[in-house]
Write a structure and sequence with these properties.
By secondary structure, the protein is mainly beta. It has helices spanning 34-38, 72-75; strands at 14-15, 24-29, 46-52, 59-63, 66-70, 79-82. It has two helices and six strands.
Length: 83
């Protein structure tokens, strides 16, 4: 028999580096870096994770009409929730 699980509307926050590709995410927390806000990566903004390059490479994001690459070290400190 299958148990009913109480699932919330959104998955818990997780880091952007490990988040699934091809999905949209709401940014929940970012590390203190002025460059991120200049790129449109700030709390409550919506981004789409397009691709994660292998072997510790950067993450390619769609932020509005721009594509932005974010390094693994920074992407792993950005917390997101799936939209």
């Amino acid at each position: 028999m299958r148990k009913n699980r109480n699932r919330s509307a959104h998955a818990p926050a997780r880091d952007l580096y490990r988040a699934d590709e091809g999905k949209q995410y709401a940014i929940k927390q970012v590390p203190p870096a002025a460059l991120l806000s200049c790129l449109g990566i700030c709390p409550d903004s919506i981004v789409q994770k397009k691709y994660r390059y292998r072997f510790g490479g950067p993450v390619l994001l769609q932020v509005g009409s721009r594509e932005v690459a974010v390094g693994k070290d920074i992407a792993s400190h950005i917390l997101v929730e799936e939209v």
